Amino acid sequence: MKKRIVSYLSGSLLFFCLTSPVKAESILEKIQRTGIVRVAIREDAAPFGYLASEGDLQGYCLDFFALLEKQLVKNLERNTLSIKLFKSTANNRFSLVSNNIVDLECGSNTIRDNTPEGVSFSTAFFTTGTQFLVNKKNRDRFNLDRDLDEIRLGVIKNTTTEEFIIERYPSAIIQSFSGVTARTRGIQAVSQGKIDAMISDGILLRAEAQKQGLSASDYPLIPKTPLTCDRYGMIVKAEDPSWQNFVNSVVQSPEVTALSKAWFGNLLEYNSIASNVCSKN
What we know:
By secondary structure, the chain is α/β, with parallel strands linked by helices. It is built from ten helices and 15 strands. It is elongated and about 60 Å long.
């Protein structure tokens, strides 16, 4: 009789284990256990993340990570936390999160409907859109409502901007730039007269042009109202609502509003104009 009871209980436990898998550890639980927050930042997306002239990593995202750490210490009631920093690129930013290498990636990540598998986005923290950086001497050559026949346009390879420009201006001469220095080299090509315009998100064009010492008056962005609506969000793990909600709470905090003013300054004008475009879509 005892053997039958033992056999029955063992079978019941096996059945329970098969039908009730152990709940996966959330990111907040993991941070509480390990005391480590793993984050990623790009080196080619000024002012969000970039290498300064002396080679030091700088950008809005570094200061955002500091605020994130401060709020986590308070929320988790810990004395300290450690930030582990990873380098991301346009190609690996989603896989870093989906493969659990980092908990969050901060950068110029356009919130999209066709979200890559395994990841999600935070609420938007900046809004921009597609614009052309041109030499003011060539401004009159551009009528963006018509086909830009024989106009030399620079784009970053394998981006939604490249697809958009090729489809919208099929008669233009497209030059694609690739790698982490793509936007830098594209803007240099404009200043050297090798191409007529470099096309990307307005905020990224203006910030990189400033790094190169190119003034907004000599190298304006056209059109003033962006051609597209692009909202940036942090990349976070999908199906982890507690972590996503926490990140959203930091993004929407008064401290981040002050951080944006400090980092973007007069560039917030581009955010405001683009936000008006997005509100109409």
